[in-house]
From TrEMBL:
This is Histidinol-phosphate aminotransferase. Residues 1-322 form the Aminotransferase class I/classII large domain. It comes from the Bacteria. Belongs to the class-II pyridoxal-phosphate-dependent aminotransferase family. Histidinol-phosphate aminotransferase subfamily.
């Protein structure tokens, strides 16, 4: 089976991380370091922030959940975009918050409409950049203007799960924004470009007062010993990260060009996936499964005519394009 449904790195786990996780298993009879000291040291050095600005999570999804639990009281407001990551709504529901889902603009965030939706009882805004599942990207200037416009009592969770895949011209320094805005949380993950999806490890960066609240709510042993060791190794494996970026850059272009030739519409993506319009999404999805290819249905986002395809290895990309050829519009 060719697995192109979950935006995983097609290179898999880096060998450096595999070795580190295997070695860490020797100590798996003991509880993990509840503070993640070694990983926080590595992240502190990489990001140039103090260790007490960091919160480790079971994937970045746990950081999203913690943000809702810490920042929002039952009945208060959470704002996010219509096609924002499905966990935003779940996190709001788990916190018994009131969700305001703002209509999208060109399948991405409409920051002006989101700002207008922020009310007196709004406590948290979720923004993903790039966005999943659409792949849309917000320019730094627009994001910064949005942050500057918010009242002091509103926290923003900036979800950067795919930030390592951004082109050089798209990159911006969100960590510098954390230093400026005491109500900003930047969430990142090792599941995507770093190839550790099965290890379930991510982190949040926030000023110490907010980070302390997140850590106070965080389960004590939420990140396993092998996951911490693998993340330290992956963070230091610059060659693997560069290879992952390049493979995605070339592979995404391969899929974009192939879909264009098939006359299948796709949304320009800044991540490691493409959202493609296929007509009857469930029908095409079933036929791809029958051909041994798994991609993502988007019914739960209200996008039944679309599928999301993870960028794979060159031969995997070619296989999904060949399988889609039967579903292309007639010329």
């Amino acid at each position: 089976m060719i697995l192109l449904a979950s935006n995983e790195n097609p290179l898999g786990m880096p060998e450096s991380a595999r070795r580190a996780a295997a070695a860490a298993l020797q100590g798996a009879g003991h509880y993990p370091d509840s503070n993640g000291t070694a990983l926080k040291h590595a992240l502190s050095a990489r990001l140039d922030v103090p260790m007490d600005w960091l919160t480790l999570g079971c994937g970045s999804s746990e950081i999203l959940e913690l943000a809702a639990q810490v920042c929002v009281q039952p009945g208060e407001g959470v704002v996010y975009s219509r096609y924002g990551f499905v966990v935003y709504g779940q996190a709001a529901a788990h916190a018994h918050a009131r969700s305001t889902v703002v209509p999208a603009r060109d399948f991405g965030h409409d920051l002006a409409a989101m700002r207008a939706a922020v009310g007196e009882d709004t406590r948290l805004v979720f923004i993903a950049n790039p966005n999943n599942p659409t792949g849309t990207f917000l320019e730094a200037a627009a994001l910064l203007d949005f942050l500057e416009s918010l009242p002091a009592g509103v926290t923003v969770l900036l979800d950067e799960a795919y930030t390592e895949y951004l082109a050089p011209a798209q990159r911006y320094d969100s960590i510098a924004w954390v230093r400026r805005f005491p109500h900003l949380i930047v969430a990142r993950t090792f599941s995507k470009a770093y190839g550790l999806a099965g290890m379930r490890i991510g982190y949040g960066v926030a000023q110490p007062a907010l980070a302390a609240r997140l850590n106070a709510r965080r389960p004590r042993f939420n990140v396993s010993t092998p996951a911490q060791a693998a993340a330290v190794a992956a963070l230091g494996d610059d060659a693997f990260l560069a290879r992952s970026y390049q493979l995605n850059h070339v592979g995404r272009a391969q899929l974009e060009n192939g879909l264009h030739e098939l006359r299948l519409a796709s949304i320009p993506s800044a991540g490691n996936f493409l959202m493609v319009q296929v007509g009857e999404g469930r029908t095409v999805h079933a036929r791809l499964l029958a051909a041994g290819i798994e991609v993502a249905l988007l019914d739960n986002y209200g996008l039944p005519q679309w599928l999301r395809i993870t960028v794979g290895l060159p031969e995997q990309n070619a296989a999904v394009l060949a399988a889609l050829r039967d579903h292309a519009p007639a010329r």
